[in-house]
């Protein structure tokens, strides 16, 4: 493997890993803020215990999200210096603004929330966790604006003298329709993730020890399941909007997602294919007639361009070369992403139904479902990003710069390999430590604390 | 003032903020086994930086992001050029963040001991390497007309840069000791005060050597003045510490770090990364910069939001201004450690 492949693997590994923690942070910060609000408004100690229980799990997760985020900012310059020079005028701004507006907000107010438990006025303490949640949203928006520019560059001019893209309309970068569609989809995915996280852990408690602590985990199952279901609906709606935008802005990605080789009108939506891995020859397949036409164009008979025709068109526009992404990878990641979301929503529905009918039994099958449900959105998120980024290949910035031209010329394969190995090993160790802590605190039932001794309830919040 | 100069100044300010703020929490981390001789004292020590260390580190992230946005060529050449050094810093910062956040999650002596070792190492390594990196930026690196770094990892380990690293290491340790003296009472306070004079003397020697050497690179009367002011603040801080004026002592070391950073950035200007191959190949505030349009937008954002950030970060320090002692560690935790 040369430096390019290694740098791509490193970006893939570090980004997918980072994004395991980010959606939990985005979704769970708001859910914890909601529980804290319930405690503030009702004064009911049940809500305080819930805030502390989910707050602890939130903090364990948040720490890894923060430290792996530093790598994200550094590696653009370290591994992708040619890309950084080319896009710095445009992509640098949202990154810097993300730091100034979001990172300061999150870190400062989280510090206040953790350590201000018995020191801050109640209102300020509550506001702190909400500001953390708002910080995560801001952060998501600016980084997605930067990514969306790479999917569909807007508001720039190409300067032939300097050989780089230059910003001329920042508003167009921030209101890029790809960003406007990706942001709600990402937020919805984050709530699906946090909802399923809460649902899984609470369900496990309820199934293991039905009578005990029902007052703590019954509402959590409900909150988690409803969050998951609402988020799933939002994912379908926003995903549908995204698909239409993708058909217009990156038709090759849409065609690859469906392994549609020839332009078709109407085009069917392929659910499953058995045949050659890249879908070019099929033995058996399950299709929804007219499905892709409707998904991509809102018309049952709309024309959807195929990979072969797009390849020809791109050769004329950009010169000779291959403009196809890895088709099997895009085809299957797209499908499994959707499947993960559907399964999580189905389990959430089942849990709600059981809760209503009071039919929580100690069935092994249900306990397994409870353990699986937090993992499904995590897998779905990863597959979604792998699809989005791999589907853009061979471009790093669609239509402007190819990925192979973006790497650092002065960094040798040995250096990239070293950092790839070091970071992967380090991330592996961190995963073990964080899962160990998460499981330990997820199993531990929060103690019923005496209101007169506020500190006894929160040793885990302290240093 | 040209916008490129405004952004050079802003990035210098962001770095200064980072060094002054994270400087003391690096120092606290390094001194953990020295001032915290038992489990409860170690908890007291770490609790002084608990609410603020993460906010301090964001200064680095914003400095990095601002460099990317305002001077993409500086960011690209620097980050790809200083590759392995930055990797080591990254690993240290990752381990440090996790150690600080996870250490207190379990009440177990082995768990604490292991994370404590990580905290000490991961505080000392970046404290040393940031000095090495900044010194190399000021000194310049081998670089051709393509603005690509032409040296190796070992090019960065030259005597001047190593002295810079030793200076930041000592200065941050001193800054941390003085911060601990200001923020605690009891044994942690007394032990922190005890290490101030020896670290202080070593810092004076290293800083004088380093800032003096810096003058030979591209010195002017301004850089001499700044370096002299840094030296005076350092001595003033040490004297204040001796007199028991801990607030003034902290202001003294904070000002020392700020003035030392000012000396470095003034020496660097108008370059952002000089080339030791040929001065004509140097990256400057002009040839490394983004377009005027980007800089203008960034300036507006910075002008509006920086005061807001300073206000709420200042509020955090105000909320947690009280000195900490053993009685601030909950009884449950004390029992578990007994």
TrEMBL record, chain A:
Keywords, in A-Z order: Cell membrane, Electron transport, Heme, Iron, Membrane, Metal-binding, Transmembrane, Transmembrane helix, Transport
Major place of residence: membrane
Membrane topology: Multi-pass membrane protein
Annotated transmembrane regions: 20-41, 53-71, 91-115, 127-146, 187-207, 219-237, 332-353, 365-387, 416-439
Highest taxon above the source species: Bacteria
Subcellular location: Cell membrane
Keyword field contains Nucleotide-binding: no
Family to which this protein belongs: Belongs to the cytochrome ubiquinol oxidase subunit 1 family.
Protein name stated in the entry: Cytochrome ubiquinol oxidase subunit I
Automatic annotation (TrEMBL), chain B:
Keywords linked to the UniProt accession: Cell membrane, Electron transport, Heme, Iron, Membrane, Metal-binding, Transmembrane, Transmembrane helix, Transport
Top-level taxon in the UniProt lineage: Bacteria
TM segment ranges: 6-36, 82-103, 115-137, 157-182, 194-215, 221-240, 247-269, 297-320
Protein topology in the membrane: Multi-pass membrane protein
Primary location recorded for the protein, binned into one broad class: membrane
InterPro entries attached to this UniProt entry: Cyt-d_oxidase_su2
Keyword Hydrolase applies: no
Subcellular locations according to the entry: Cell membrane
Family, as annotated: Belongs to the cytochrome ubiquinol oxidase subunit 2 family.
Protein name, UniProt field: Cytochrome d ubiquinol oxidase subunit II
Species in which this protein is naturally found: Kribbella koreensis
Gene: cydB_2
């Amino acid at each position: 493997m040369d430096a390019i492949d290694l740098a791509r693997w490193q970006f893939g590994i570090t980004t997918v890993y980072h994004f395991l923690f980010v959606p939990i942070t985005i979704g769970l910060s708001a859910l914890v803020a909601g529980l804290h609000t319930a405690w503030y408004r009702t004064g009911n100690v049940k809500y305080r215990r819930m805030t502390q229980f989910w707050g602890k799990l939130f903090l364990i997760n948040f720490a890894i999200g923060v430290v792996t985020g530093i790598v994200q900012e550094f590696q653009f310059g370290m591994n992708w210096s040619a890309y950084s020079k080319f896009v710095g005028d445009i992509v640098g701004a949202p990154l810097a603004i993300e730091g100034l507006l979001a990172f300061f907000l999150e870190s400062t107010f989280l510090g206040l929330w953790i350590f201000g438990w018995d020191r801050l006025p109640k209102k300020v303490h509550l506001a702190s966790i909400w500001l953390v949640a708002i910080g995560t949203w801001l952060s998501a928006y600016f980084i997605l604006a930067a990514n969306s520019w790479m999917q569909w560059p807007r508001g720039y001019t190409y300067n032939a003298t300097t050989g780089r893209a230059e910003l001329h309309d920042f508003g167009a970068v921030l209101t890029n329709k790809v960003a406007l569609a990706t942001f709600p989809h990402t937020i919805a995915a984050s709530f699906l993730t946090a909802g399923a996280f809460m649902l899984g852990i609470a369900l496990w408690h309820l199934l293991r020890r039905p009578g005990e602590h029902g007052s703590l985990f019954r509402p959590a199952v409900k909150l988690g399941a409803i969050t998951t279901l609402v988020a799933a609906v939002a994912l379908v709606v926003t995903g549908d909007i995204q698909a239409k935008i993708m058909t217009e802005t990156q038709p090759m990605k849409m065609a690859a997602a469906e392994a549609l080789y020839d332009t078709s009108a109407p085009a069917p939506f392929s659910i499953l294919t058995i045949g050659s891995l890249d879908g070019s020859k099929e033995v058996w397949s399950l299709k929804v007639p007219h499905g892709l036409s409707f998904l991509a164009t809102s018309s049952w008979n709309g024309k959807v361009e195929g990979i072969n025709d797009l390849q020809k068109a791109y050769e004329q526009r950009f010169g000779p070369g291959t403009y196809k992404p890895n088709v099997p990878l895009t085809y299957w990641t797209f499908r499994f992403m959707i499947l993960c979301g559907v399964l999580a929503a189905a389990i959430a529905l089942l849990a709600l139904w059981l809760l209503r009918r009071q039919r929580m039994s100690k069935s092994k099958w249900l306990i397994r479902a409870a353990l699986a449900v937090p993992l499904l959105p995590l897998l779905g998120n990863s597959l979604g990003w792998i699809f989005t980024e791999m589907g853009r290949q061979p471009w790093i910035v669609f239509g402007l710069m190819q990925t192979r031209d973006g790497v650092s010329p002065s960094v040798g394969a040995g250096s990239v390999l070293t950092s790839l190995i070091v970071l992967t090993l380090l991330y592996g160790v961190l995963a073990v430590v964080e899962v160990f802590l998460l499981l330990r605190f997820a199993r531990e039932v929060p103690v019923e604390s005496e209101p007169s001794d506020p500190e006894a309830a929160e040793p885990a919040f302290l240093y | 003032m040209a916008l490129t100069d405004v952004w050079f100044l802003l990035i210098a300010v962001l770095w200064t903020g980072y060094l002054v703020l994270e400087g003391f929490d690096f120092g606290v981390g390094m001194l953990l086994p020295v001032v915290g001789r038992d489990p409860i004292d170690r908890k007291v020590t770490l609790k002084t930086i608990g609410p603020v260390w993460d906010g301090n580190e964001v200064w680095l992230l914003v400095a990095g992001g601002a460099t990317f946005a305002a001077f993409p060529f500086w960011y690209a050449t620097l980050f790809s050029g200083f590759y392995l050094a930055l990797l080591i810093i990254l690993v240290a910062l990752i381990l440090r963040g996790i150690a600080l956040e996870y250490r207190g999650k379990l009440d177990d002596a082995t768990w604490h001991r292991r994370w404590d070792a990580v905290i000490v190492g991961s505080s000392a390594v970046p404290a040393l390497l940031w000095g090495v990196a900044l010194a190399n930026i000021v000194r310049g690196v081998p670089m051709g007309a393509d603005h690509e770094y032409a040296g190796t990892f070992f090019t960065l380990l030259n005597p001047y840069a190593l002295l810079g690293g030793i200076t930041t290491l000592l200065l941050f340790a001193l800054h941390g000791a003085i911060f601990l003296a200001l923020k605690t009472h009891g044994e942690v306070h007394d032990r922190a005060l005890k290490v101030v004079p020896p670290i202080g003397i070593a810092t004076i020697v290293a800083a004088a050597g380093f800032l003096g050497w810096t003058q030979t690179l591209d010195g002017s009367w301004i850089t001499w003045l700044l370096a002299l002011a840094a030296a005076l603040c350092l001595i003033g801080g040490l004297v204040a510490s001796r007199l028991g004026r801990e607030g003034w002592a902290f202001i003294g070391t904070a000002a020392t770090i700020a003035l030392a950073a000012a000396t470095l950035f003034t020496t660097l200007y108008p370059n952002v990364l000089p080339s030791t191959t040929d001065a004509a190949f140097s990256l400057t505030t002009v040839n490394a910069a983004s377009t005027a349009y980007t800089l203008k937008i960034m300036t507006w954002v910075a002008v509006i939001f920086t005061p807001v950030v300073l206000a709420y970060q200042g509020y955090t320090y105000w909320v947690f201004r009280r000195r900490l002692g053993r009685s601030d560690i909950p009884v449950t935790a004390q029992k578990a450690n007994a």
